[in-house]
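Thread: Newbie trying to understand structure tokens

Hi all, I'm a second-year student working on a class project, and my supervisor (Dr. K.) asked me to get a predicted structure for one chain before our next meeting. I've only ever worked with sequences, so writing a 3D structure as a token string is new to me. If someone could post the tokens and maybe explain what I'm looking at, I'd be very grateful. Here's the chain:
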Amino acid sequence: MRKKQSLNDKKRYVSIKEHKGLRKDLISGKIYVRKTINKKQYSAYFDSIREAIHWRNTFHPSLNYTKYESTRMDKFSDLKPETIQASLNGEKTQYRFSDIWEYYQEYYFPTLSRSTVEEKGRKAQRFFDGLMNFKMVELSAELLDLYLKEKVKIAKVVGNPRRFDFNSELKILGAFLNWYRNNYDPRFINPILPRHKIIGMIKKKNKSKKKMTKDQVLLFFDSFEDQFWRDFAEFQFYATARVQEVGGLQKSNVNLSKSSVEIINVAVWIKRHTFTYLKEIPKNGEPRCVHINNRLREILERRLSDVSKIPCKHFFESTGERLDFVFHINGEPPSYRVIQYQYNRALKRAGLFKEFRSTHIMRKAMANIVT
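---
Reply by user tm_fold:
Sure, no problem. This is what the structure looks like when written as tokens:
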């Protein structure tokens, strides 16, 4: 015979008016919640309403879910798990974001260049932190909406003047999620949508379409106080080269007798500051030859005659041969920060700094003048 419930038993649970289906256990103080899936009932106890709502919205028996696990997303005040869609994205319920990220680094990173790995790893470490504890099947467009809004809010507080949006991070995330779909779960749908670029915008970037004129270029060259830096800037201009290509130029790639320079090596700086290593293939993967005109010959003869008494401490990774830079300071390649400082200093002396800055101006200027 079924035991009759006492009056005290009936009053043990009290409904929570603001949250349908949730009841509070007056004896333990915990939140009791039930959920029916395929006509089978499941229930659990939690310490907070947030935990209970998250369980109700995301629980599925195939997830082997035992207890709500607080994720690093809890630190984001605007994130409300109950607003995230409960439907599963894909069918592989055993993987967490952190698991796949480890696989990605183990199996995919070795196929990339060292500089690309460093760039992706650095950006991902900051941007992916709050996603690591989520199941891959929990990733949705709605989740990314909330995640990006919080990232933007934090970025505005930090106030980095060079941070305009999270487009670069979204590109890395998109490639990562596509890799997961192709290798682990073909039913997974990449949740990144065009709207996420808009949500991830911190502030508008005013793109300057203005390019230096011939007179401005000459004024810029004349504003260098040191011949070394003028040679560096002029070589970049006449070779229509990226600053990394000038910084990585080796003496062995200069052939004065044939009036040609092979652009093949690229300097790689950690966070664009300190020289790390020499990449032995240019950005587009195709080496190119530059004709040595009279001005370039004058520059290269001057730089080739500058032999350091101290041998360079860096080597080719492929052959182990010691590096020998055309543009060096006591045998070592200049850091990107120093190059940038010298360019901006010359621009200020020329009265051009408000219109132009940094190092890409030479490449753009040459393209503008010859067209």
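A couple of things are worth pointing out once you decode it. The CA atoms of residues 11 and 67 lie 26 Å apart. The radius of gyration is 30 Å. Feel free to ask follow-ups in this thread.
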